[in-house]
Amino acid sequence: DGTLILTLEAMVKKLENSRGGGIYMKEIGGKSEQNQYSGKNLLDISKCIPALNDKVTVSGDNIIIGAGTNLYGVKWDNVPFEVGKTYTFSYGSLSQHGTSYGFRLAYEDDTYSNFFGASGKTMSIDKPVKQLVFYISGGTEFTTDTVISKPQVELGTVATEYEPYTGGIPAPNPQYPIMPTFSEWTEVACRGK
């Protein structure tokens, strides 16, 4: 009967020739899902840079700091903090932290905030911020990598469930597209003339 069946596996199939008559959708079966995010996470982990050593990589939602020193960390320039507002700093887990660890703000006047170590801490911004820094001090040299999972900075006084960074705007959006996932089969039947 001229019916063409395609099975989609999280990708787009393009038909090069529809014999000039167009393609008409007949049916779609299966289940797909697409994550949506509010844009609340203001911390782009892909933009982190080494603070005290050069062994920093990003993998998915994790920051990995290489072993081999007793004091290290990561920092971010240009986190969009606004004076007069309060932000919450959180992370999913920290694989090791030695004797001290935590976030710290570097202000534009070359002064620093106190450390705030535990996840879920809040900080009211009272002057312009130059950098956000996450320091870890081991006391002795670390022999394994340290992993910081799912770091997040958000406006407000409560740490909420982690979302990946999406440019500070809801996603999917053109800068941060999100591919649908197919948790079951998806079948498309179409016909051309």
What does this structure look like?
The protein is an all-beta fold and 193 residues long. It contains no helices and 16 strands. The chain has strands at 4-7, 23-29, 32-33, 49-50, 56-59, 62-65, 71-77, 86-90, 93-94, 100-107, 121-124, 129-137, 146-149, 152-155, 181-182, 187-192. Strand 5 (56-59) and strand 6 (62-65) form a beta hairpin. The radius of gyration is 23 Å and the shape is globular. Residues 1-12 have low confidence and may be disordered.
Most strands sheet: 4 strands, antiparallel
The helix/strand series, from N terminus to C terminus, equals EEEEEEEEEEEEEEEE
Question: What's the overall geometry?
Answer: globular
Task: Give the low-confidence spans.
Answer: 1-12
User: How is the quaternary structure best described?
Assistant: single chain
In order across it, which strands form the biggest sheet? 4-7-12-10
Computed CA radius of gyration, to the nearest angstrom: 23 Å
Number of separate strands: 16
Report strand %.
35-45%
The helicity comes to under 10%
- The number of distinct helices, counting runs of at least 4 residues, comes to 0
Would you tell me the structural class of the helices and strands? mainly beta
Average pLDDT over all residues: 78
Distance between the terminal alpha carbons, to the nearest Å? 11 Å
